[in-house]
Design goal:
The protein is of the alpha/beta class. The chain has 12 helices and 14 strands. Helix 1 packs across helix 6 and helix 3 packs across helix 4. The chain starts with 6 loop residues before the first strand and ends with a helix.
Length: 401
């Protein structure tokens, strides 16, 4: 235990872990605890959180709706970059953590708290994401990470602590895995999923139907973009959160966006994760389609070369780092002409581009046609090829000498 803590702001979900942590903080540090819950689209009942937190000992409760901020300021910027970690993960949890931690720090500063706390374990990525944000925004803040301090090392121990202190314990059977939900995705890990040979149980999925059970008729939609961000579906303008929610509904109905991967955690171990990201999967596909006709080749290739680094920064928790700001500014610059409409077909787990158009298109039938035209002399290609082959010819000629 470090120096005396008088007031701490806890990232609180109302589940077993953070309910126990709330009481443990009060007992261990003899301090005041303010509970903070962020609504980022997890679709869980938040109405009973405040009385539960107060009953457990919280002096005050914040329940903030951050759904629009989450999509507008975190999801959309990442999708301007076509961010993806290790080729498959669309960073749903990784993008949510810095927002939650930022708001937690804002509350701590407003309330005069000298510490913040979270329920992330000492093995995962979330502890890093929370704490890097805390320290980037409030370097003086004290951090209490109970899973790295206490001796409650099992669910049985947590349940016993809860019973002893009169904390309501869930009566439903524990799911044989853990899950985390927000407006971008649902993640599943641990428990029966720890064996990478075991397929996920079909009953586990929430956002999407099985592709085999999806409708037998394809659905065609159109998405509109302005400066790299989606603005409308089928001509109907929607707020960022409403738009992503509608994409989730459409994609989920057609079994789109399921991913099962073994990923490399920042802390060093491999972890098996199963994800549902229906709306994000459609969004990324559509965004790349409108980019294909509006972005300069060299600008696109340079931006694409930075996607792995950009995605890694998000995954590892460096959202508020100077290198992240630098990359985001560059990426946003590449999106100035990325406006247009994309036509997509949704069918049994697949999202297929049917068409794309833009007033800022760099594509020209006159230049690309195989018919007679006068804007491009095919004979010019001979010199182009011979110049590019020069080093290859020299290498071969010298090898023969």
């Amino acid at each position: 235990m470090s120096k005396k803590i008088n007031k701490v702001v806890l990232a609180y979900s109302g589940g077993l872990d953070t309910s126990v942590i709330l009481k443990w903080l009060i007992e261990t540090y003899q301090c005041e605890v303010i509970a903070f819950s962020a609504n980022i689209g997890q679709a869980e009942e938040l109405d009973n959180l405040e009385p539960k937190a107060i009953k457990t000992g919280a002096s005050k409760v914040y329940i903030d709706d951050l759904t629009e901020e989450f999509v507008k300021d975190y999801v959309f910027p990442a999708f301007r970059a076509n961010a993806i970690y290790e080729g498959q993960y669309l960073l749903g949890t990784s993008l949510a953590r810095p927002l939650i931690a930022k708001r937690q720090i804002e509350i701590a500063l407003a309330e005069g708290a000298d510490a913040v706390s979270h329920g992330a374990t000492g093995k995962g990525n979330d502890q890093v994401r929370f704490e890097l944000t805390y320290l980037a925004l409030a370097p003086h803040i004290q951090i209490v990470a109970p899973w790295r301090e206490w001796n409650l090392k099992s669910r049985t121990a947590l349940m016993e602590f809860a019973r002893k202190h009169g904390i309501p314990v869930p009566t439903t059977p524990k799911k044989p895995y853990s899950s985390d939900r927000n407006l971008l995705h649902i993640s599943y890990e641990g428990g029966i999923l720890e064996d990478p040979w075991n397929p996920p149980d079909e009953e586990m999925f929430i956002l999407s139907v099985s592709p085999q059970k999806a409708p037998d008729r394809a659905e065609v939609i159109e998405m509109s973009f302005e400066n790299g961000d989606p603005t409308a579906i089928n001509g109907k303008k929607l707020s960022p959160a409403a738009l992503l929610g509608e994409l989730n509904r459409l994609g989920g109905r057609h079994g789109i966006g399921r991913v099962d991967i073994v990923e490399n955690r920042f802390v060093g171990m491999k972890s098996r994760g199963v994800y549902e990201t229906p709306g994000g999967t459609i969004l990324r596909q559509a965004h790349m389609a409108v980019e294909s006709i509006t972005m300069d080749r060299e600008v696109m290739h340079l931006r694409d070369s930075l996607i792995p680094k950009y995605s890694e920064l998000i995954y590892n928790g460096f959202w508020f780092s100077p290198e992240m700001r630098l990359l985001q500014n560059m990426i946003d610059k590449t999106q100035e002409n990325v406006s247009g409409v994309v036509k997509l077909e949704l069918y049994k787990g697949n999202c297929r581009v049917l068409g794309r158009k833009s007033d800022r298109s760099l594509y020209s039938e006159d230049f690309a046609t195989f018919e007679d035209e006068n804007v491009y002399s095919q004979k010019d290609a001979e010199g182009f090829i011979r110049l590019n082959a020069l080093r290859l010819r020299i290498q071969r000629l010298l090898a023969r000498s």
